[in-house]
Amino acid sequence: IARMDLVEVYAPLGERLWDYMTITGAIYFAGAFATLVGGVYWKGASRAGAYGAFACGFAAILGLSPVQKALHFEWPVQAVGLTTAVLAGVAMVVLSLLFPDPQKEV
Question: Which residues of the chain have pLDDT under 50?
Answer without folding.
Answer: 1-2
